[in-house]
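Homework help board

Subject: predicted structure for assignment chain

Our instructor gave us this sequence and asked us to write out the predicted structure in token form, then describe one feature. I got the tokens but I'm not sure how to describe them. Can anyone check?
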Amino acid sequence: MKISELVGTRLEAIRTACRTRKLSLNTERTYEGCVRRFILFCATLSDWKYKSSDELVRMHLENGAKDWSASTQNQALNALVFYFKHVLERPLGKLGSWAVAKRPEQLPVWLSHDDMMSLISHLRGLPRLMAEVAYGSGLRSHELASLRVKDVDVGSRTITVRSGKGAKDRVTILPDIVIPSLTAHLREMRALWQSDRARCRAAVAVPSEKFNGEDWEWFWVWAARDESKDPRSGIFRRHHVHDTTLGKALSVAVKRWGGSQRVTVHSLRHSFATTLLMSGTSITDVQALLGHVDLNTTQIYAHCLPRVTLRVKSPLDGTANVIPISFAQHSTARRTA
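My token output:
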């Protein structure tokens, strides 16, 4: 079998495996790219048939690690573990700690509440409402973009995140302040939904055949204005706005605002967590709202708190009894010496 045919066959198999296990489209595409690179790498080895799966994976990761970031290396590892387990049905052995790249420890970018509200004031229309919901609820970019009408409960002031990271559901806060604007927006979305139903347009995509995508409850909160081709089914239907919609608007708003930090949609989530911790919310409550499985993941936001800098005084500030020497006096003293 030619390499091109092998690649095509294996990629089709991994697409099927991803869809069977309800993985997101982004994950599916990432795994496809990683498996394609792995197969093409193996094709460059004259003796690949005589090497074990573990050895081939090790060689591929070590070869790529020269140019990849830690995140890319870990993505490749996850993809290959999935590929050998669910496609080839030959699970890899224990590769060892070397296979997992250690990411550099960096504090997340976050803004104070006043700075965040100032930044949001430079947004207009739909991006502004999306930013307010993202900051007020601590949602990830995809979680925000893919919200459905049934996930927003104005009565209980909650948002239910379905199949978030790790395929886990959770409930988070719906801020009171966004409810009037969000309610008005949902009226516009309902009119759009009614127009689609009156024109017998294709229903929105749903996670299972037991659900009816024509029902209002399954319609997108942030529905796209135009229909587009479903990348999986090939059906022309209405999707939610692209995940990058808010990010692009934020980039423009940051320039207008005049900030020097690189603010992304995830910065809204970081700011949500840090602001809650600074206000006295317990870290376990913040963990639940963010949907973190491991409390250590939430702990990084505790490092952002300015507790140490507020409690500890610089030694230089304790020299008030020292008579300052002027620059001129300092220069004269040096010449005399």
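Reply (TA_rk): Your tokens look well-formed. For the description, you could write something like this. The mean pLDDT is 86. That's the kind of observation they're looking for.
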